[in-house]
Design a protein that fits this description.
The structure holds two protein chains of two kinds.
Chain A (H helix, E strand, L loop, with lengths): L4 H26 L3 H21 L3 H21 L5 H22 L7 H6 L7 H20 L1 H9 L1 H6 L4 H23 L6 H13 L3 H26 L3 H19 L3 H9 L12
Helix pairs in contact in A: 1-6, 1-9, 1-10, 1-11, 2-3, 2-4, 2-9, 3-4, 3-9, 6-9, 10-11, 10-12, 10-13, 11-12
Chain B lengths: L6 H8 L5 E12 L2 E12 L3 E5 L6 H9 L6 E6 L14 E4 L13 H7 L2 H4 L7 H13 L15 H13 L5 E5 L7 H18 L2 E6 L2 H5 L4 E6 L1 E6 L1 H6 L2 H6 L3 H8 L7
Parallel strand pairs in B: 3-7, 3-8, 5-6, 6-7
Antiparallel strand pairs in B: 1-2, 1-4, 8-9
The chains are: A mainly alpha, B alpha/beta.
């Protein structure tokens, strides 16, 4: 299968994405942003549709849509009467609905929307590979440079703020990086399934390690493995690549739950069980 | 650390003592439209131990957040190390903070070492990585609070008292001159409370720290604080533990705990 250049492109692109999504999924899981990830990725549908209708490159339109939704989430999480959860719930359905309306009026029936929704190994072209490489590297660079701040924020935001960490801009930057990574992953994994790459790798990593270094490393390995195997199955059985990647990720999670040393505790973290360091609330 | 010290705080440290490390003048705070703090005025001498007491919901944590620069007062003036705390950004390595409760996930994958290293984040600076000096400071700080040997343990596996010590180490791993503690003993059993407070009192003496400790528990503070401030929205009492706890007014503030207070009054003269 490696004799096909589209397959090689898909594998290279997928591996880059997996390496970037490893550390990002760590913060998505520990900062409980998986719903935000889903919201931002679904908003890309609106962007893709508007881009196709206006004749603008769909990726660029999707980046704009996703970043706007990310900034909306960020702004309401800072101050606002609505909680983040509700805002995400409203923003992303609105963006998707807008996409559907645009699809209807612009009569975009000849475009393969399935490929955008569920991913396709045929979709990655040479230029996409370049974009994935450049934006992926920049995103990874952001995460590496601000890792200690992001870790502090994810662990204890209030003290991070009190210690002089520029919480708001760094968190906003993270959400923008998240949007970028989501958009560049869409062609391969699809709008509906892209959030899997933002949750599964860390969820599996947490089964294997008790330290963030190990968790991130395992996340990346899991990502590369699942992208490789998923693309193979996609090629072999002609299923959308996003679907096969997610199925591999799910299988790896199940396997880890069965054999990994830390399985119980990691499940608790994903359930959101919190350990209180003590104290009663007060002003 | 030399790389971050600016002249303004240095001016403060070079000024002749005795100096007031923290000064509040007529501070009012409104949160969501309701007054939480009303006309608070006091100052904290360098090297002293101030206890802030008051019943639950009295505004004690807000007061600490004002001192930290996290909450902006609607009226009044706040000075920490001679500066507005919200402009203290580059000097925060002089201020250590231990929050009331940290709702971290028990399984958050960080070790004690990683947690204490978070305290160094502000002096390492953005887009930089911890150096040898930072690693040394973290290990020293861990040893100081008596957690040596537990550096690599995941934070969630420690007991409540040990976790508090780790957070104390995080607040101390800088050139800390001011230590702000919000209910540090809450949720601990009596033994752990005692040993944590003794540790704080010892560190205060050894390092010449200025300590501000907030607690709703009078017994905790009576024996360790040099001065007490009793607040319930506004400031009711300010003085030595003996004066404050001996005052008739305190029973108005605390309303129902009079018998307990009477017991304490006999207690607060006991040796530290």
């Amino acid at each position: 299968m490696l004799s096909y250049s589209f397959m090689v492109r898909a594998l290279v692109a997928g591996s880059i994405l997996a390496l970037v999504c490893g550390p990002i999924s760590f913060f998505v899981v520990t900062k409980k942003l998986s719903f935000a990830g889903m919201g931002i990725s679904h908003a890309a549908f609106g962007g893709v549709a508007v881009g196709l209708a206006l004749g603008v490159e769909p990726t660029i339109a999707a980046v704009i849509f996703c970043c706007l939704v990310a900034l909306g989430i960020w702004a309401t999480s800072r101050k606002g009467r609505l909680n983040e959860d509700a805002v995400i719930g409203m923003l992303f359905v609105t963006a998707m609905a807008m996409g559907l309306v645009v699809v209807r009026f612009a009569r975009l029936y000849n475009v393969d929307l399935m490929a955008y929704l569920f991913g396709s190994i045929l979709a990655i072209e040479g230029s996409d590979l370049l974009i994935i490489f450049v934006l992926g590297t920049l995103s990874l660079l952001y995460i590496v440079l601000f890792f200690k701040e992001l870790l502090f924020i994810a662990f204890d935001e209030e003290t991070a703020r009190a210690s002089g960490v520029a919480v708001d801009p760094i968190y906003a930057g993270f959400l923008l990086v998240l949007s970028l990574v989501i958009v560049i992953s869409i062609k391969l994994v699809g709008i509906i399934l892209v959030s899997a790459l933002l949750v599964f790798p860390c969820a599996v990593g947490l089964q294997w390690s008790r330290n963030f270094r190990g968790v991130v490393a395992v996340s990346q390995i899991i990502g590369v493995l699942s992208v490789g195997a998923g693309l193979y199955f996609s090629y072999r059985w002609d299923v959308p690549s996003g679907a096969s990647i997610v199925m591999v990720l799910f299988a790896l999670l199940l396997l880890s739950l069965l054999i990994a040393p830390r399985r119980k505790s990691a499940v608790d973290l994903l359930r959101g069980k919190e350990g209180r360091a003590g104290g009663c609330g007060g002003r | 650390m030399k790389r971050r010290t600016r002249c303004r705080v240095r001016d403060f440290f070079e000024s002749p003592g005795p100096r007031d490390v923290i000064t509040l003048q007529g501070v009012w705070v409104r949160l969501d439209g309701s007054v939480v703090l009303q006309d608070i005025t006091f100052s904290v001498r360098e090297g002293s131990f101030l206890g802030v007491i008051g019943p639950n919901g009295a505004g004690k944590s807000t007061l600490l957040r004002v001192i930290l620069g996290l909450v902006r007062p609607d009226r009044g003036k706040v000075r920490v190390l001679g500066m507005d705390p919200r402009r203290l950004r580059g000097e925060l390595h002089h201020v250590g903070y231990m929050p009331q409760q940290i709702n971290f996930d028990t399984f958050f994958p960080v070790s004690v070492y990683d947690v204490v290293m978070m305290g160094r984040v502000c002096c390492i600076g953005p887009m930089r990585f911890p150096g040898k000096e930072d690693r040394k400071a973290v290990l020293e700080s861990i040893e100081l609070v008596g957690l040596k040997g537990l550096e690599k343990r995941p934070i969630g596996e420690l007991s409540g008292g040990q976790q508090k010590r780790a957070f104390l180490a995080r607040a101390l791993c800088l050139e800390t001159r001011v230590l702000l503690l919000d209910e540090p003993t809450a949720g601990l059993d009596l033994d752990a409370q005692e040993s944590l407070l003794r540790l704080i009192a010892r560190l205060k003496e050894e390092r010449g720290l200025t300590v501000v400790l907030v607690s709703h528990d009078l017994g905790v503070l009576a024996r360790y604080a040099d001065e007490l401030v009793c607040i319930r929205k506004t400031m009711h009492l300010h003085g030595s533990p003996l004066e404050v706890l001996g005052s008739e007014k305190i029973k108005e503030v605390y309303q129902c705990e009079f018998a307990f207070l009477a017991h304490l009054r006999g207690d607060c003269g006991s040796p530290r």
